[in-house]
Automatic annotation (TrEMBL):
Keyword Zinc included in the entry's annotation: no
Pfam families: Sortase
InterPro entries, per database record: Sortase (IPR005754), Sortase_dom-sf (IPR023365), Sortase_F (IPR042001)
Organism listed in the record: Streptomyces siamensis
Lineage top rank: taxon: Bacteria
Oxidoreductase listed as a keyword: no
Regions that span the bilayer: 12-30
Keywords associated with the record: Hydrolase, Membrane, Transmembrane, Transmembrane helix
UniProt name for this protein: Class F sortase
Record lineage: Bacteria, Bacillati, Actinomycetota, Actinomycetes, Kitasatosporales
Amino acid sequence: MSEHERSSGTGRLLTAVAWLVLLFGLWLWGRDVTDVRQGLTTPTTGDIAAVGRPDVPLPPALEPLGNARPQRLDIPSMGVQAPVVARGLDRQGAIEPPPFEQPGVVGWYAAGVRPGAAGAALFVGHVDTDTKPAVFYKLSAVRPGATVRVVRDDGKVAEFTVDEVQVIPRDHFDAQQAYGAHEPGRAELRLVTCGGTFDRASRTYTANVVVSAYLTGSG
């Protein structure tokens, strides 16, 4: 085997290992992000009505845009206009959500895909705080066909269309299912928060809400 072949093989192995480590961290995050303090004790708004994939026609996908960092996330159907902050992984390899002291802020996994580029960009937000709803309180009520806009630091606004809404129990959380791209080469988003009901004994929510969207416009 040549030196070039050995180097290529090593590179592919390291990429695969890094992807597996990330997926494990995302799996941990999907289970652990639902750990809140007191929180509101009612079911997350709209969980029962989460509808999965649509039966209505959706617009065609737009070709991916160039790389740019997100600055703001807008979801008109929820009345959300939220600043975006970059987040990394904690010591356990799980994504750090935004601080509880910033309930109106959305976190973006900065080591992953940038919104508008090919792949699935990950956004996370709290469902509530000790005393009131937070930025993604109504996330599970979003329907396929809804619009999500990301204002980027290159001056462009990437417009995404929701194509799937899932409420995934914590005990059956699958990081690949939740975060993997639905179609290779397509620019996609994942919006994730707590869902299900609040368990007083464990002080956690019982599920995660995962909203999937794909790039359909740019302005």
